[in-house]
Amino acid sequence: MNFTEASLFWGFLVVYGAVMYVLSPKSKNANSFYKGADDEGNPVGQWSLTASIFISWIFAKSVTNAANLGAAYGVTGGLAYASYWLSIPVAGYIIYLIRTQTGARSLQDFLTSRFGRLASLAFAAAILIRLYNEVWSNTAVVGGYFGLPGEWEYYGAAMLFTVFTLAYSLKGGLRSSIFTDVIQAFVFVFFVGAVLFLIVPANDTSALLTNGEFKLNAGFDLLLVALLQMFSYPFHDPVLTDRGFVNKEKTMLKSFVVAGLLGFVAVFIFSLVGVHARLNGIEAMGNAPAAVGQSLGLAALFFMSVVMMTSAGSTLDSTFSSLAKSLAVDLPRLAKRAKDRLPSVRVGAVIMIVFALLGNLPMFAGTDILKATTISGTMVMGLAPVFLFYGFTRWSPWSFHLSFWTGLGLGVLLAVGLIPASWAIGDGAYAMLLGVNAYGFLICTAGFFLPLVARKLAGRSLAAGEA
């Protein structure tokens, strides 16, 4: 960067952090810090909740991945990644059913009541891993607009961004997160519009919207993966599911549906940045938004960086608030060491600080941000039968464990390359991922129903013997 570029980018980062801190509200009690209520105890409004869900799930890594896939496969790649956002309405509807049918106040409450405390602990471990990954995978994307991995500018920007986000998260917890999400949503939409204003006129619109093929080896395999993971992926992300319990059931459901549809459209639109790169022969180099921004000039690159900072900030502050709730509220309740009374704000603040430090360690080691999504989504495939078919049982711990641990095992085997080649569906880049998710869903479902079938057969045998 030259002096002008450095002043613009670093200046915006500092101004962004200062403005978010000044505007974010301060939580005066634990109910506000952990549950997002205002000082009088009123829940989050519908449109604030909608904006929060919309922007907090548009991670910096997500829009980068969408653009990269657009560069690799055209609109097919963009649609594939955008399809993950359709899981938000799915999650909202299932949480609506859980709340209205079981009266559960959280997913942990629900799992404990149906599948036992050990099931809830396994689930808690899965979501903590997910939250841990959210820290580095978002700060690394921001750092990429200031320098390359290995350069001090890269790490310095990522850590400064972490500090700013942590500061206003400590100030207000979930209430601050939701409030700033509304601001970040408007900023995100405005600058995405500015990016499109530069990109669309530079291309033939028809070519921009039709480039790509719906073939398994041209990105369609990833689209099928996204549709399969739709029923499991959202449930291991408390950034999303925590918001399913902060308002009335119908208000929550409306917010989830609208936010999911808006998210699908927004992510697909941003994937056109990658399609532009594909049409114009711009080498993405793992970061299509930055490559396109550099090709279009300083203004475009600055717009891209603003989009990344706002999307990363909305996710990171939500991650901090979810970590605080998971470790300060949910886990102690599972361990029977806490009652309904919420812990002090100080406990949650300490947790945020610890994870702000530890969560960035993988960034220094170097990692693939796309794998943070696809691999973790595969490892939790066993959650799909648990949440889809819970109505078939009142109490069945083995149903959870046979489904959940089978999915986790398959995800680990995929990650270390031990799945047989015969499992692949098609010959595309995601052929093995598709095969594991397709066959894995069937195997996990069989595992879920096995204890129920065995119990029913045992009951019939017992009845026959008594007769």
UniProtKB/TrEMBL annotation:
Record keywords, A-Z: Cell membrane, Ion transport, Membrane, Sodium, Sodium transport, Symport, Transmembrane, Transmembrane helix, Transport
InterPro entries: Na/Glc_symporter_sf, Na/solute_symporter, Sodium:Solute_Symporter
Membrane topology recorded in Swiss-Prot or TrEMBL: Multi-pass membrane protein
Catalytic activity: L-proline(in) + Na(+)(in) = L-proline(out) + Na(+)(out)
Primary location class: membrane
A cellular-component GO term for this protein: plasma membrane
Parts of the chain that traverse the membrane: 6-23, 72-95, 115-132, 152-170, 182-202, 214-235, 256-277, 297-324, 345-363, 369-390, 402-423, 429-453
GO function terms (MF aspect): symporter activity
Localization terms from the record: Cell membrane
UniProt-listed GO biological process terms: sodium ion transport
Similarity comment text for this entry: Belongs to the sodium:solute symporter (SSF) (TC 2.A.21) family.
Designated name of the protein: Sodium:solute symporter
